[in-house]
Structure formats: C-alpha cells, structure tokens
Amino acid sequence: MLRRPYSILLASACLVMLAAFVPSALAQGDDWQTFSPEGEEFSVSMPKDPKFEDGQSNYHRMTLNTRLYLSQSDKGPVLAVASMSGIKANSAMYTEYQRLNSYVDAFKDWFPAKVRGKDALAKLTLVGEKVLNGNNGREYTVVIGDLSGTAQMYATRRRFYAVVILNTRKDEKLTERFLSSLTLPEKTTAPTVAAATAEKPASIESVSAATAKPSKNEGGDDAQKPGTVGAGTAEVKPDPNAPDKKAGEPAPINGGILNNKALYLPTPEYPAIAAQAKASGAVNVQILIDEMGNIISAHAINGHPLLQATSVAAARQARFSPTSLSGVPVKVSGILQFNFTAP
After folding, report:
1. Can you point out the beta strands (E) in the chain?
2. pLDDT tens-digit profile of 139-197?
3. φ, ψ of residue 20 in degrees (nearest 5)
4. Other residues' Cβ atoms within 10 Å of the Cβ of residue 342
5. For residues 340 and 283, is the Cβ–Cβ distance under 8 A?
6. Tens of pLDDT along 287-311?
7. N or C: which end of the chain has fewer CB within 10 A?
8. Considering the domain 212-242+250-340, what is its CATH architecture?
9. Number of continuous H segments (helices) and E segments (strands) in the chain
C-alpha cells in the first residue's frame, strides 16, 4: 500500500530536479552559433538569433551610434554584445585610454535600461586591464538590479565593444565559454596626423572659476583602493599599473570625495580646442596621495575626452595635509571631480 505514494513522491522529486537543470542545460547546449554581424569587427559564440537593436545615444553633446545584440530569457542568463561608434581615435587630441574611458562612461549610462528598464543603474567594478589582438581594453564586474556578471570592453580604431554576461547566479563555465569566444581584428598602427590637420591650438585658454570648478559632491576612477563614481554607480578596484606596496607598508586608506579636503586645488584650464567643440560636463579623476600630502598618481576614467588631460593636470598640482592612522603616516586614495560648462 505504501509503494504508490512513494512512487509519486519520487517522480515529483525527479521533475523538480529536471526543471532546475533544464535552463542551465539549454544555456550551454548546442543552440549556439559563431556570430559575426555584417558591418562589425567582432566575432563571438552565443545563442542563435539574438535580438538586434540599432539606435543612437547622446553623450557630452556627442551623438554615438549604438548597436546591441542581446540574448535574454525570463530566468536564464543575459548575454550581450554592445557596439558603439562616434568617438574617433585621434592621438593629437586624447590618448587611447581617455577614448576608452569615455566609451565606458557612455556605456554605463546607456546599457542598463536595455536589460532592466528605464530607471536601471549599473555598478561597474574594475578587475584589470585587458588586451585582445593589440586592442586595449578592461574587464569589469557588473551589477544591474538582480543581475550580476562580467563585462569585457575594448576600443578598436573604428568602434567600441562591450561583451557582457549577466545572471542571477554564478555560472563560471558559461561565462568562460562566452567571453573566451570573442575575437577582434589585429590592431593596426594609426596613420600619423600632420600638424597642419591636427587643429591643435598653439595656446591654451584659461577658464574662469564659474566655467570650470571643482565639485564637492561626486567623482571616480581606477586607483589604489576601491572608490565610488557618480554617487555609487561605479566602484573601482586598485590600479594594476600602480607600484606594488612595499612589505610592511600600511595600505592606502580610501578618503572618498576629496575636493573639499584639499589645501590647494587649482582650477583646470579650458583648452581652446575643447571650446571649439563646446565640450562640457564632469570629469572624474582618481588620485593617490603620499604620506606628505603630495599627489603620487592621477588618472581620469570618464568625462569628455578633450577635458580629461587638463583635469588630470590640475589634479596633479593639488596638495593635502598629511594623514596618519594610529600615529602612522599613510597614503590616501580618493576622488576629485571637475565640472566644465561650455562658454
């Protein structure tokens, strides 16, 4: 008499286990394809027939062309390749990393709504630098609502690519399969830009305090200790290019927003070429301060590319009071933000 209820319970348990297994099996099954869209430079392996969206996004008075290739189900993982163009490579105006930083900043504002609705926000945490076939890039951990995962972002000479995998649970095998399948063309040497065509002015125009001034509210960058960009929207890990800490040396402490703690913080100059482009907005600079209050390093990770170099130059001139922890002098990492208004 007990066999029938026991059989029913056993069958029910098997169905529950199968239901839990199926989404993962489908995600990693044979319904994948090598995907190389026409007009793009990338190739990647992902589930067949991803949703495609072609549009535009505004970023610091620039219009970026956007394309999104998205595979998403109700309970399964989100796999996406985002493609952007509009910030041209130009070594006479800004560095490759300043261009990459600007694209990452634009992506952070544009992408979350595509997977979690209009009001969604992304939290990016820098993992480290990446290079793929000579193309500079970075890897981030990403959190958008209930989703978390990994994004690898690269800037080729023509476009910017973000390859993103998000899920409600960890799946390292699936993450490795997707991200490792990405290919990009070998980077070619950029043609030399003649001085006559670079349009770089011989002089620099100073900007008034009302036009470009340090902010006391926000900032962000990649540096020695985790920091926060844009009121908690982008956390940053230690800079992989920074010198290693000596044995026995206290680790730098995170000072947060440092604009109002500076003994001296100059107003950044407003380049004439930036005025011509009507460049404006905030530039976030992460700094590392030594035990004497001097700046050791400064790096910009977002803001208009024409305004990043002048912001870093101003940040490097800042001075702070020495900081001690339990009577021991320590380094401090933190954030400076500079706001620019086009004349």
Report:
1. 32-35, 44-47, 51-59, 62-72, 78-85, 123-132, 135-144, 147-155, 160-167, 212-215, 227-229, 234-236, 253-257, 281-289, 295-300, 323-325, 328-330, 332-340
2. 999 999 999 999 999 999 899 999 999 999 889 999 999 999 999 988 866 544 433 33
3. -70, -30
4. 15
5. yes
6. 999 888 899 999 887 888 889 989 9
7. N
8. 2-Layer Sandwich (3.30)
9. 6, 18
